[in-house]
Amino acid sequence: MGASLKNIQKKYTLFKKKWTPQQNLFYGFLTYVLAGFVLLCIPIFHKTDVSILDNLFTATSAVSTTGLVTVSVFDSYNFFGQFIIMILIQLGGIGYLTFTTYMLLSTTKKMTLWHKKILSTEFILPESIQIKDFLKSVIIFTLIMEILGSIMFFIVFKQDLPFFNALWSAIFHSVSTFCTAGFSLFNNSFIDYANNPLLNFTVALLAIFGSLGFIVVTDFYLKVKNFTHKISFTTKIILYGFIILLSFGTCFLYWFEPSITQLTQGRLLASFFQSMSAMTTVGFNTVDFGLFNQSMLLVCIFLMYVGASPSGTAGGIKITTLSAIYAIIKSRLRGQKKITFMHRVIPFERLYIATSAFIFYTTIIVLGTFLITFTNDFKFEDILFEVASALGTVGVSTGITTKLNTIGKLIIIVLMFIGRLGVLTFGLALWHRKKENQKHKILKEDIAI
Amino acid sequence: MGASLKNIQKKYTLFKKKWTPQQNLFYGFLTYVLAGFVLLCIPIFHKTDVSILDNLFTATSAVSTTGLVTVSVFDSYNFFGQFIIMILIQLGGIGYLTFTTYMLLSTTKKMTLWHKKILSTEFILPESIQIKDFLKSVIIFTLIMEILGSIMFFIVFKQDLPFFNALWSAIFHSVSTFCTAGFSLFNNSFIDYANNPLLNFTVALLAIFGSLGFIVVTDFYLKVKNFTHKISFTTKIILYGFIILLSFGTCFLYWFEPSITQLTQGRLLASFFQSMSAMTTVGFNTVDFGLFNQSMLLVCIFLMYVGASPSGTAGGIKITTLSAIYAIIKSRLRGQKKITFMHRVIPFERLYIATSAFIFYTTIIVLGTFLITFTNDFKFEDILFEVASALGTVGVSTGITTKLNTIGKLIIIVLMFIGRLGVLTFGLALWHRKKENQKHKILKEDIAI
Ligand SMILES: [K+]
Ligand SMILES: [K+]
């Protein structure tokens, strides 16, 4: 009996090894979503009836750390339901493999080449960063930040809520913020706290650290431990890019968004908060995006499209990809043969990944928008905003999420899933087979473009 | 006196040789636009007052063969004004350099390497096609098609118009169609002729031949002259791509566009005509695009975005670029290292041009749309449609062109100019300097993307 169980286990392990790293990630996330979905369907976790589709939507939104919701989390799920959602956010945020690989590391003290390969798919990293160090920092850093966040949130919430509620809200929002999930127990996100300085600071701190990500943190951690450590080029690009884009978004909203320019107080804070929310992809809001005008929605869509750092919890094409795209445009316009950025040649492999990501991401946004305009009837800018928000795993909305029809909700579910997995990983998981026979007769001929 | 004039001419020639080919094209087109603008401003060419901005708009629209108008051509300009517009369309359509180089060829019987270089910028061609043959075919082909078109249009128009009007309309629309300019002397384009089979056929024939372009024609011409001639890979891609995309657009409009599904007759013809109009970028219409729903506008935007062939008069990123983008997506998803299309490896240089074109084109569409949403107040899909139409030099509109404010009109003028010149050529003309000193200290370091 035991031997046959072992046999099955062995066969399963062999079966798993047949998967590409991308397929492993794909099925890993899918397992989380489905497990969460099944759990959330159990009526004992509900305050009110929740449809099967809405439970699937919530589970996908939690695992993908998006935060779009078709039902109110607070009104629909009881404490245990909310707890499940928090766990799904945490699992999704730290990531299927970071977590499982750490479990493996802490028990066996060694990591197989196989797992290293999967990890480097999940976080496309330069080889100079050691994966073991990287993982330890991730876990420790997450714990520290979430405990710190819980304390700060608790100080805010204990003024308005009874002790237990304040404590639970603090923990839930801390996890939700650090994983840039943007799930809230308040039905209007943080609009009631728009001018609370501590809340704004806490959200910004957790979301920025979470989204800037583990590369940047590992880099700084090493710098602190060893003063001679040189901060990597990647970290510098991410930091500069983040500051530039965040300032750009804040200025635009501050000067040109009517619903913000009319504010009598907290105008700069509101501009900063919504820009930060879009860029870190945390997705909380302190003003109503439904009131934004077209051009400012486009600014936010651009920020969501970019996202933040490749090793963080944020979605989007990432600042590093944007900088490579910028480098291509600049070098091309100058007629340079080599693509340079900040006086450095970008290797061909990186350019290939960047252009692929740009092409894939743009194609999926266009396709998603088309499908929703085809099946639903909303203002075009609201649909584009919703799609960018879902694919970027941001979770802000102009308010159409709850009004989407069944097909619309299913499209958003798929977009959130693709967004969390990454467009390239998602594509490779579905179409790349291991050791495919390439029987193509390859010819070389020129095409005019 | 004669000597000093010769001296000035010599200096001018030297000055011109300092320009890059792209700058030469840029200033060439700019000269046409400005000359046309100045001529159109002269009151003797007007039926009614036309503002300076509207004259600039008309001149740019004509030279760029776009066909967007802020004033009615028939109501605002008299016969001589219309004649100037036709000449501008013809110059823009055949192209600044094709024309001037032919003039040079027919007088000197030889072409300088310099001119060959400029020509290969205007039409990015595989080296296997001879430029001299190419040019001859262009001119002869244009004449034959426009005379044929004039006769066919005349047969249609003589039923409704007096002799001279019918003749002039026939010639004007023939030039306008073959150059895919879409300028019309009728204020509602060809809506009154929606069910006239000969008119539909004439427009389709001229526009498809004009937009498929001179590569395809030269290739077929050589095939007819010499049966053993092998039709090039490029021509095949263009033909297949054109047929696939045109069928795709026609089917979508036929089945899903309410203003077409409600038609009692000519439903298939109307679907075909609007798709053909968007893809060839001729820009005539037999139904009102203002009535189209969001998703069908997106289908048309996609067709305009692509356009047709690299050697034709159409705008857009071209079918060849689209096929390279498709090849990148497909090869990437399969995990192939080499980018292949139809079992052929696409050379790196071509991929570089294709991805640059995709990035540039997409960036400019997004930027143009943002600027118009920022300064004007229309439905988002109408603005996106207008921008794609201007940049693709298509000229269809949902009806907002005349309602744009001054800044809006200026943005569309710039977009039409960029569209005609090509996004890469435009960029290179502005920023690429000959023999720039590259003092960059080039380092090589990896970035994570
Ligand atoms: K989020
Ligand atoms: K046109």
Automatic annotation (TrEMBL), chains A, B:
Keywords: Cell membrane, Ion transport, Membrane, Transmembrane, Transmembrane helix, Transport. It holds the Pfam family TrkH. It comes from Neotamlana nanhaiensis. One of its GO terms (biological process) is metal ion transport. This is Potassium transporter TrkH. One of its GO terms (molecular function) is monoatomic cation transmembrane transporter activity. It is found in: Cell membrane. GO terms for cellular component: plasma membrane. Its main location: membrane. The keyword Glycosyltransferase does not apply. The keyword Transport applies.
